Amino acid sequence: MASGTISFGLVAIPVRLYATGESSQTVRFSMVHEKCGTKVKYRYYCPTDDELVERDEIVKGYEFAKGQFVLFSEDELKALMPEATHAIEISEFVPLEKVDPIFFEKSYYLGPDKGGAKPYRLLAETMASTGRAALARYAARGKDYLVMLRPFESGLIMQQLRYAVDVRPFAEVPIEEAKVTKAELDLARQLVDQGASDEFDPNVYTDEARGRIWELIEGKVQGEEIVAAPEEAPKAQIIDLMEALKASLGGADEKTERKPPKRATRRPAAKKKTAAKRTRARKKSAAK
């Protein structure tokens, strides 16, 4: 994708950046004219002049107030953008586990460029042995990026990070107060232990929806008709949390104590009342 240079003290390491994802696996649909089957083109329309605008008539502007723009020339835009030095300047080394994944934005593979194999290997093995990652600044494509370099398999990976101001505080998420009982916690731990693994194997997981889409598209290309699958009946919801946990465990834990149902307290009184009526009836009968 690009070339760069890692600044490690007085050591300069020439590197190349590679994409970590396979864009060819993405399902993309195009906008097509139904009448003739031709892919349509985007055109720009000005609602004030009620006319289409050609690209050479378009400039960039910043909306500083509702409907009010300040316009910039190409030279002014270039002056606004930082110089793309492609330098990856390491500022500090931190424990890898101290960088929360919420700051992760994108990832790129780093490989050594010509003449950089040995210092590249030195940096990768040093960080792997110390368990630390390198925080650095990377100036490219008119932006100043915060990145993290970390050891990955036999080399390095560069993780583009969000700046702190770009991450919303979790305190903005409304969470109601709720008390969790020890019995519920014990059952939940059993459920976690039941599905626990010591390793993450990404090959176990596949995008089933994407696979189905590709299959249907191939069928459509061959002239088959796509028919929507019947909707599944909604699953019964288990409202009681304890019952839901037990059902998730397959009913294995039947020893959990249950509260006994409340007994009716009025029934004995009703019996006494009935017995009293019978006693009065016998007395009346004897008196007659």
Gyration radius (Cα, Å) is: 35 Å
Averaged pLDDT: 80
How helical, in percent, are the residues?
25-40%
Main β-sheet: number of strands, strand sense, barrel status?
A: 7 strands, mixed, barrel
pLDDT under 50 segments (min length 5)?
252-279, 281-288
Number of helices: 6
Terminus-to-terminus distance: 114 Å
CATH architectural name of the domain at 2-22 and 83-165: Beta Barrel
CATH top level label of the domain at 2-22 and 83-165: Mainly Beta
What is the overall shape? extended
Describe the structure.
With 288 residues, the chain is α+β, with helices and mostly antiparallel strands. The protein has a domain at 2-22 and 83-165: Ku70, Chain: A, Domain 2. The protein is 27% helix and 27% strand. The chain has 6 helices and 11 strands. The protein has helices at residues 74-80, 117-130, 182-194, 208-221, 241-248, 267-287; strands at residues 2-8, 11-19, 44-46, 51-53, 60-65, 68-72, 87-95, 104-112, 132-140, 143-152, 155-161. Strands 1-2-8-11-10-9-7 form a 7-stranded mixed beta barrel. It has a two-stranded antiparallel ribbon with strand order 3-4. The relative contact order is 0.10.
